[in-house]
Amino acid sequence: MDASYSETFSIDSAKQVFTARNAKLFVSTFFRYTQPDFPVAH
Fold first, then answer.
1. Which domain of life, per UniProt (predicted)?
2. 3-state percent helix, strand, coil for the chain, nearest multiple of 5
């Protein structure tokens, strides 16, 4: 466990944040902005 993190983990908050839609948006944004640095073969 990380000693610098002392907050409790809320599973309800995690379920609201980590949805399929949010994951899709994160992945698409990540690859859109990192493609110039890390080209992916299509």
1. Eukaryota
2. 50, 0, 50
